[in-house]
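W.,

You were right to be curious about this one. When I first looked at the sequence I had no strong expectations either way, so I just let the prediction run and decided to look at it fresh. Below is the sequence, 336 residues in total, followed by the output.
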Amino acid sequence: MSAHTKAIPNTGWLKELTAYTHSHTVKAVWQLLNTILPYFVLWAGMIYFQTHGFSYWIVLLLSLPAAGLMVRTFILFHDCCHGSFFPSRKANRWVGYLTGILAFTPFEEWRRLHNMHHATSGNLNRRGTGDIWTMTVDEYCSAGKGKRLGYRLFRNPFILMGLGPIFLFLISNRIVHPDAKREDRRSVWVTNMAIIVIAFIVSWFIGFQNYLLIQFPILFFAGLIGIWLFFVQHQYEDAYWSDNKQWSLVQSALNGSSFYKLPKIFQWFSGNIGFHHIHHLRPGIPNYNLERCNEDVPTLSMVKPLTLKKSLQSLKLHLWDEKQEKLVSFRSVTIN
């Protein structure tokens, strides 16, 4: 049992979570308005400052809250992928496509990969889809020098958090994966074409260079925040990993998905995704119900929160030690 939570009682309490899976159109519309409208206002302000001779530092400063709003837009997109944002399946799909375009992410293709992540998170035998590359100590020690070097480079924070956002949003999300179905491929092409059209229209009015100087920092900072959130949701010392026979969805959610307790302002920008343990228990709970669910269900209080300060230590952890059942650093491993 991981130290992340106390012993989990019988799972009868899980039925209590069903009450929080009900979507609300008014709440969803309000979240769209208080997220996308400020995002467009910031874009307009950045265009003004960029095209009227002001210091580029002002544009970069505005790109930070714009990036935060882009992250929040992605969370709304994420809820649509789970069919939880609106009560209507059609509304989730349409809004999912539109918010996906703003977040540079194809709706159908990302939904498929993300659902696989939910079905395999914490399963040692099913790693590799929608997760952060994680090797066990034994795998790392028995790997060749080239693979070990590649893994160390991948887990380097400057590469993972620096080049990661560029690769994910500008390259990986633009490519159709080999096992994609027809609707998945279509979502990639529709999203790509929409991004190109938007870039062309904006560039027509303000110039392509100005478009890049505005869009790139927003995309980079949003990607940096997004990758960090996804990383820390499943990469911390007492996380949960198990083989296929021992794997448990409840254990994976409560022990392998963090309760990332953030300051209220960061919690708002990240769309309550810090309640990730609840999200993995019931992906059908929309983001606007997660905090109330956490407060109302007594069993969830057993989950130890991961603080912002504590989460930074996760960057020093790289390998899953199956004997100790925790993530460890490269330095703690000796290769014979």
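Here's what jumped out at me. The first strand starts at residue 135 and ends at 136. And, maybe more interesting for your project: The longest helix spans residues 25-51.

Coffee later to discuss?

I.
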